[in-house]
Amino acid sequence: MSVAPLLDNIETTCAPSKRSKSLTDKAFRENFDEKLYTLLELDFEKYKKLSIEVSEALRFFSNNDKLKEKGKVMQSCGFELGFIEDRLVDANFCRIRLCPMCQRRKSLRTYSDFVKMLDLLTDYAFLHLTLTVPNCSFDELSDTITFLNKCSSKFFSLPIFKKAFHGVVRTLEVSYNSVTNKMHPHFHILIAVRPSYFKSRVYIKSDRIQQIWSLLWKHREENLRGKKWTLEHLDTLPLADDELLQTHITKADNGALPEIAKYAVKPIDFECSLKERAKVLDCLYSALNGKRMVFLSGVFKDVAKKLKIDLEASEPLPAIDKNKIVYYYWNYRQAHYESEG
User: Fold this and answer.
1) Can you give the pLDDT at residue 222?
2) If you average pLDDT over residues 170-196, what whole number do you get?
3) CA distance 341 to 16
4) 232 vs 227: CA distance, rounded Å
5) Which of 143, 9, 139, 150 is nearest to 73 (CA)?
6) 3-class DSSP assignment, residue 35
7) Most CB contacts within 10 A, which of 16, 121, 168, 258?
8) Angle subtended by helix axes 45-61 and 274-288, to nearest 10
9) Three-state secondary structure along 90-103?
């Protein structure tokens, strides 16, 4: 059985032309497609530079030998880009989860897939829910994410939410606070409800959502033992005011909907040295290994299946006429893309 090639794992062997033309050359730009120029300079060059920074952090400062090797591979990610007009059709992406260039590509595809899903869900209104937990140390991150997943599964399985919510897209985001040296894992969740939800009997107030989530998190150790939780049982458990966790729920307008799907794959923001960055990346690599960043249920899962969308899959290579491809190569010395010919 043949496997279709993927846009993000194509190995390329072409060398840059000696007669390459720089995107910073004004005369060249005057005869250059402005949309493609903007795409290369403001998008690909930006994330290529970020990938090089992450690569250097891993290669020189990581304590994980596997990550050091991944850093070497990441250095060449996006070295060659092939376009037909302003459409990317060929590239040598590394497919490493921590790579900003590949995260960006994943983000764009997730956005596109999500828009397609929403086009078939016109009978629903949507909520954006953020579920947070206290910041944790590097060593605690993996277990904290495990608890997060377990608690959210219990949360949405409670009858109060099953009656009101018709589908969920749950995305995991992990941010880093360089001041406290702590990790902050949390969920951004898109919820499908009936348009009548806001005036119906199944409407759930925000403080009630906060209370239930806080109770589940406080008693998470017991939660993991597999006990069948009920809302009646939760309401008997103690919870002090200072144990309430931050939750935020709002009505999601059409412009905000696709943004929620991008949280899981957006590049992590760094404001620290390469050495400190390597420690964060080591932590993320270990904690996120084997974990799904996006989870679908209800009507979202049904629509994704109908459209044959897999948010975890790699980007397929489109059918193309290779004679029409124009290639651009990364100039490491000048830190920008150049065309061949």
Assistant:
1) 74
2) 92
3) 9
4) 14
5) 9
6) helix
7) 168
8) 90
9) EECCCCCCCCHHHH
DSSP three-state, residue 47: helix
Structure tokens at 128: 């954006």
Element (H, E) at 140: none
Tell me whether residue 228 is exposed, middle or buried, using C-beta atoms within 10 angstroms of its C-beta: 0 to 12, 13 to 18, 19 or more.
exposed
Q: Read out DSSP for 125-140? A: EEEEEEEE---B-TTT
Among 108, 104, 85, 109, which residue's Cα sits nearest to residue 94?
104
Q: Is the pLDDT of residue 200 over 60?
A: yes
Residue 83, beta-bridge partner list:
88, 326
H or E segment at 239?
none
CA-based nearest residue to 97, from 184, 178, 8:
8
Q: How many CB atoms lie within 10 A of CB 239?
A: 16
Three-state DSSP string of 211-232: HHHHHHHHCHHHHCCCCCCCHH
Is the pLDDT reported for residue 320 higher than 80?
A: no
CA distance 41 to 32: 13
- Is pLDDT larger for residue 22 or for residue 316? 316
Look up residue 40 and give its DSSP letter.
Answer: I
Q: Which of 236, 263, 234, 244 is nearest to 206 (CA)?
A: 244
Reported as a single tens digit per residue, the pLDDT across 206-263 is 999 999 999 999 988 876 565 567 888 888 888 888 889 999 999 987 666 666 766 6
Residue carrying the six token digits 């975890």: 312
Closest CA to 93 of 15, 16, 9: 9
Q: How far apart are CA 172 and CA 312, in angstroms?
A: 13
Report the 10 Å Cβ neighbour count for 170.
26
Q: Which of 285, 291, 239 is nearest to 70 (CA)?
A: 285
Specify the DSSP element, H or E, that contains 151. Answer: helix 141-157
341 band by pLDDT with thresholds 50, 70 and 90 = low
Count how many residues are written for the chain: 341
Q: Does position 5 have pLDDT exceeding 60, yes or no?
A: no
Residue, of 218 and 11, whose pLDDT is higher: 218
pLDDT for 340 equals 72
When the pLDDT of each residue in the chain is averaged and rounded to a whole number, the result is 82
